[in-house]
Amino acid sequence: MRTLLFAPAGRxxxxxxxxxxxxxxVVLDLEDAVxxxxxxxxxxxxxxxxxxxxxxxxxxxxxxRVNALETPWFDADVxxxxxxxxxxxxxxxxxxxxxxxxxxxxxxxxxxxxxxxxGVETARGVLDVRDLLGGPVTAAYFGAEDYVADLGGVRSxxxxxxxxxxxxxxxxxxxxxxxxxxQVVVDIHDAEAFRADAAQGRALGYRGKLCxxxxxxxxxxxxxxxxxxxxxxxxxLLAEADRAAADGRGVIVVDGAMVDEPMLRVARDTxxxxxxx
Length: 277
Fold this sequence. Notes:
two-stranded antiparallel ribbon, alpha/beta
């Protein structure tokens, strides 16, 4: 899931266009994208939107982002979740006991085992992130904008103010064995800023990125898919390792550089992300 494209659940015109950019998955958003005064009316249309997506793009994984647990809308959002979803996105998770509440709420409406994408986007959530990645959680995203607002910081172009938190979430996801999804880029017209941010996210260990505009999907796909050059280099590295093993050589040198097991692990991971064994 390199690309997770969000759209307001209250904009059926935008939802209908989601498959065009060919994201790996889409999220119909009941949270930030829907004003409080429209929560009830938009929620009532949710099943119809999901049915339309399943008809138009049956292969497309569809998620719904509900409102946070501590809001007055969470229970009604869960009650409205239709069948056929790939999972549910739960924002602003902060404590281990909340996972049990999420599981119980999903069980109550018959969604037993439905995968959860956890939103880690508050100061407490980042601090206790390892506690949030159990149970039904199969992926998590870092929400920089909400995190900085909660922290009382200031967003900057270089994102240095979120480097620690962003790294902490990626590390926790790796340890827990769940997919790490990177922060949004709010400037939807700055492709170079998106590329730079995505490259930094990939370097930190993220495997995909949240997208809030269709134009960002291709950029995220490119950033989180190994290039032809990377794939070729990985093949060369592993081939040389095989030759060294066959010759009984304990030392491997490629392009003048010593090669050790961590480098071989990176090469194998590159091929796996490129869809090769």
